[in-house]
Specification:
Layout (H helix, E strand, L loop, with lengths): L15 E2 L6 E2 L3 E5 L15 H8 L3 E5 L10 E6 L9 E6 L6 E4 L6 E6 L10 E6 L7 H10 L1
Parallel strand pairs: 3-4
Antiparallel strand pairs: 1-2, 4-6, 5-6, 7-8, 8-9
């Protein structure tokens, strides 16, 4: 085991070093149900500078109800859309400076998305798992359809 590894869990005040940088930083994660990839009649939220500014304050963002694929400048976006559906949709965005430390975790569910951040492969205790989940409302047509398939 690497002697630089800390086997104890990190506290809120600990910092994470981004691999391409010698500077430590806080790992900032944003989770946001955006209710749609569109911004009313104004077009895609991905083109809205206020929306992008909110996301840009974070190293990692998790979006729910995207309903389409997202690509955000300076981020590697992992999109997961429901097959044959115009509802739901998930996106985890990782700042490009951290893209090399990401491992996508396969899930069996359309509404669960997961990744691991592995800052140092020689330090197996320093793995951060981020899970992005969208739970449809009980009265949604998607949930009713899923219940019908399982009965």
């Amino acid at each position: 085991m690497n002697s630089n590894c800390n086997p104890n869990p990190r506290s809120d005040t600990d910092k994470v070093t981004i691999p391409t940088s010698s500077v430590s930083c806080h790992l900032a994660i944003l989770s946001w149900n955006i209710h749609d990839g569109m911004n009313g009649s104004e077009g895609l939220k991905a083109d809205d500078t206020d929306f992008i500014d909110h996301l840009s304050d974070c190293n990692v963002f998790c979006l729910q109800e995207t309903k389409r694929e997202f690509q955000i400048p300076n981020y590697k976006c992992f999109n997961q859309l429901r097959p044959d559906s115009r509802s739901g949709g998930l996106c985890i965005g990782i700042h490009r400076a951290m893209a090399d430390i990401v491992k996508v975790i396969s899930t069996k569910h359309d509404d669960i998305q997961a990744i691991s951040l592995i800052p140092d492969p020689n330090c197996p205790g320093d793995i951060y798992t981020i899970i992005n989940i969208y739970d449809s409302p009980e009265n949604s047509s998607y949930k009713a359809k899923r219940k019908g398939l399982n009965s």
